[in-house]
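To: structure desk
From: M.T.
Subject: fold request, one chain
Message: Could you run this one when you get a chance? Sequence is below, nothing fancy, just the single chain.
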Amino acid sequence: MLAEQQRLDGGARGPRPASLHERHSFDRFTQSEADFIAARDSFYLSTVSETGWPYIQHRGGPQGFLKVLDERTLAFADYRGNRQYISAGNATSNRRACLFLMDYPNRARLKMYVHIETIAPESDPDLLEVVASAEYRAKIERIFRLRLEGFDWNCPQHIRPRFTEQEIAGLVRPLQERLALLESENVRLRSRLENSGE
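Reply: Done. Structure tokens follow.
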């Protein structure tokens, strides 16, 4: 990594860390990261197979389904799905993974390096209570507990703003309310004009 950075920009931006382990200031979540994580309703999870190939999976759920347990630990419930178990299977042979959390409207991206631990739900009832969602009644097959190795905020340069239906509804609501008010006023004025002609 360092050699390629030196080759491409000749160190013009100053010294770079030789490895993730040297970035001590980015190995614990602050309140800023905790708030960002709690606001997400999806993320991308990258694991590595036994053959060395990466596998990227999109994970989604209710806002805040990825829980911050402490400044170095995350967890989320793994619900029954298509029964391919690729990420879960990869984690049994290589516990290293990467997460990308996106905030498209604000063009922000949080990248994390973690170690995955899979936990049977019945083996930790307290953790199960934390990660379970009353809004989603599917069966929880396992819990992923993620131990933070490091994180970084990425450049927003090429992030295109995208909005969920809920976000669009919030943005459009003032316009709809204004339109309803104008329509109501229009009806009132028409009625006044009609009555004045009698």
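Reply (cont.): Residues 165-196 form the longest helix (32 residues). Let me know if you need anything else for the meeting.
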